[in-house]
Each structure stands twice: as structure tokens, then as C-alpha cells.
């Protein structure tokens, strides 16, 4: 079984808060490389997801989804 990571929930959260992906760099303090990896649906380090969750006061389930194919 192949599993894929989806950050669509994060992108919706950004739109809801009138933010762009580049705002994550400035406001959350994560690298542009991490943002690019998420944009491609690739894995990122756990500490990056923790920073995002702390900023938005949310949980992992609010920003990422594991899709089983």
C-alpha cells in the first residue's frame, strides 16, 4: 500500500486566514525549502509541522492528511 501526504488542509487554512505560502516563511519561521516540499506533497520534518500548529493553535490533523492508495 502506497501512502501519500497531503497538505491541502494547510493550504485551506492559509486561505481562510488570508495568507500565502510565503507568509509561512516570515510568520512561522520555516524554510522556503520546507514550503516547496509541502507544495509537492513531500515529507517534512516533524518540527516544521509543530511550528505551524503552534502558530495556528491547531493539531496535526488540521494541517496534514495521510492518503492511502
Give an overview in words.
It contains 4 helices and 2 strands. By secondary structure, it is mainly alpha-helical. The protein is globular and about 35 Å long. The model has no long low-confidence stretch (mean pLDDT 92).
Main traits of this protein?
12% strand; 69 residues; two-stranded antiparallel ribbon; single chain; globular; 4 helices; mainly alpha
The first-to-last residue Cα distance is 6 Å
Shape: globular
Instruction: Estimate the mean pLDDT confidence.
Output: 92
Strand content: 5-15%
**Secondary structural class:** mainly alpha
Give the strand tally. 2
Q: What's the tally of helices?
A: 4
Instruction: Give the uncertain stretches in residue-range form.
Output: none
> What percent of residues adopt helix (DSSP H or I)?
40-55%
Strand and helix order: EHHHHE
How many strands, which pairing sense, and closed or not: the largest β-sheet? 2 strands, antiparallel
Radius of gyration: 11 Å
What spatial order of strands do you see in the largest sheet? 1-2
Please give the structural blueprint:
Blueprint: E1 3-6, H1 8-16, H2 21-28, H3 32-39, H4 46-56, E2 65-68
Antiparallel strand pairs: 1-2
Question: Could you write a compact summary of the structure shown?
Answer:
The chain has four helices and two strands; from the N terminus they run E-H-H-H-H-E.
